[in-house]
Amino acid sequence: MTGEQPRRTGQGVRRVAGSAARGTVRNVGRAGRATYGAAQRAATAEGAGQSGLSRLIALHASNAAGDAAVAISLAGTLFFQVPTGEARGQVALFLALTMLPFAVLAPLIGPFLDRVGHGRRWAIGSTMAVRAFLCWSLATAVATESKWLFPAALGVLVASKAYGVTKAAAAPRLVPPGVTLVKANARISLAGVIGAAVSAPIAGLAAWFGAEWSLRYAFAVFVVATILAIRLPARVDSAAGEVRLELLAGPSAPTVEPAAAQRSPRIPPAVAFALRANCGPRWLSGFLTMFMAFLLREHPVAGWSARPEILLGLVIGAAGVGNTLGIALASLSRRLNPAVTVVLALLGATVMTLVAALFYGLLPLIALGLTAGLAQSLSKLSLDSTIQRDVPERVQASAFARSDTLLQLAWVVGGGIGIAMPLQPRLGLGIAVAILAAWTVTVVVTNPNRPARRP
To answer: Rounded to two decimals, what is the model's pTM?
Structure first.
């Protein structure tokens, strides 16, 4: 009896544990199905399912999920396991090598998409396939400590920026009737935030076994994204009714004959102004990404010396929260003046950078990340609104492609300057403030709505 009783007790415990495990699995399954169903309904709402916008939303969520996995992997390899001096030198070299062709090719991406409109799905798919290949190569490079780690990592970065340009050219073709382009872009951006938030814990768990495993997870995500890109609706490739758009330097550019304007319309002054204002927050994003990655290693905030990667994660997370807040404010875009919004966002980013430079610490850095994400998001949504309002529908795809090309280039320039900055918090951030302040003055002076001086 004494031996039988423990056996019965053990069997009872196992039955209870098994029942609890099955109940947990069922509850998780129900929660997963409910979450997927809610996401599916949100993605297909207001005609997005019929127009094909839901497919682009799913694609962008996959893109953000893959980028999040790459970021988590590189946070523990590219920045934190290589000596600071060696990492800065190699990253600067390869960023310069990738910046030069990108700067030369940037003005050609828009015209190329205009002339090869029927290949947009394959262009988007190519950016995904390239990243899938590079992620697999990165996983091998991390495991073997190969010298190809840095060029492969920056190749992923360039391909990610190229995706932003190609996606911007495709989005206007999939907006359902009755939905504004600004609202559609906000839904796409929100899907990216959700995709990154869902993917980050998975990538973090994979990285616990080694950075190469999170990169292999990213490879699988980008393979799926490649398939999703190719399965976008055929209207993405349609260029019917579209013409090329010429970007001018500013509102004082020379006029053209009406016949020429119909063949190749020029960008309206309000759009040029919004685009110039957007370059400031986008430049700051690139600057902070590179500068903070090395600065927080060399000069972490007091009390965080042992875990600089967590400190960097807090700043990046704050930027993500700011970006989400900006997307949430997209519903107010009709009540806000886009020209005023882009200037306020640029001013806010400049002021908060100054605060972080003067009071370098955990809270100012988190506030800077939050403000930078919010400013970039609000500025981009205001630019989208201005393009939709002032640019004819037949050239909106070209306008979005070209404007995104310029903004991606601004990010790369900011990243290059961030790497070149001395690793001194107040000096580096102070130089960033000076650049932003000078750019803010330039933007305000070129405002087409600025009252003219009296003679």
So the answer is: 0.70
